[in-house]
Each structure stands twice: as C-alpha cells, then as structure tokens.
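Protein: 16S rRNA (Guanine966-N2)-methyltransferase
Species: Serinibacter salmoneus
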Amino acid sequence: MRIVAGSAGGRTIAVPPRGTRPTSDRVREALFGRLAAWGVIEGAQVLDLYAGSGALGLEALSRGAQAAVLVEADHRAARVCRENVAALGLPATVRHQKVETYLTEPSDARADLVFLDPPYDLAEPALAVVLERLVPHLAPDALVVVERSSRSPEPTLPLGLVAAQTKKYGETALHYLDHTDDEAGDG
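Structure follows.
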C-alpha cells in the first residue's frame, strides 16, 4: 500500500499481516478527491479511528492536515501504525486502545476531520454508541467519514451529527456526516 499524494505521495506503508481491511486505492483516491474539493484537509486536526495501518490519517497528513491521532486496538496493527508514522516522519500520535475506551477519555483537542473505518462485522448498535461518544470530540463544522459495507444499513446518528451524503464504490460505502451544534436540540 502507498500514500497516494502530497508530501509523502508515492511512499509505501506497511499493512498489518491480518485482522484489518485496508481501504482500497480507488476508494481512498475518491475520498481524498472529495475532501480536497471541499477544502477540509488543509490544517485539519484528524482522528483516525480503527486505524489499521494508519493509511487514512497518514494520507490526510501528507495532503496538508496539521496533526493526527491514530487509534487502533490490535497490538500488531498499532505497531505497524507506529512504524509507518516513524518511516514517514509525519505528525501523528498512535493510541493503542479500543476506540470505545479512547472516546470516553476527556480531551481538549477537537477533531476537524474523522475517519471511522470499523470492521464490517461491527454491529450497528455498537457503531451508534461510538458515534454518540465521538460527538464531544468534534470541532464545530467537523466532518466524519464512516466506511461500511455497501450492504450495511445507514448508520444510526446521534444528536450532533447529520448525514450529508453517501457514496458507494462496489462493496464499500462512504457515509459523510456533518457535525452540527444542535446538541441541545434547539435547531
């Protein structure tokens, strides 16, 4: 696997030997083309949940994001993330812990751009809990991208997130979610 574009464009990154499902080059190119057109990458604080190799967060950094936190529970994948960060010299922090646990911890940092690429077999109720716990970690006008199987139902959204659009690429569906400041239900 390689970084597609930006300061680290063309550089190869390692992929964990098993247990992850890397986003295909085709889907990553479409995703980052859309994000670039929307102008949401440059200077962004990125949160890459279920990071796997860290490819999505590292691609965002290569294309101008300011910093990224890569969260991965699997110890082999977290090690690969650390190796990729070190090899590319990009400003990322790797957190080896479950996403659900990470999101219960208080944080002063707020993410502008979030990649959420859980295993396709993660049940929808569990995904709904993750999305609810994510909302307090979001900056105003943050964008959340959820990658799921194109056969999965639309994610159940908590107060504070609204569906912007969904794009399907074969077996993969990308759900783009906007953060709203409507947490009190007053809008």
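Remarks: The longest helix spans residues 25-38.
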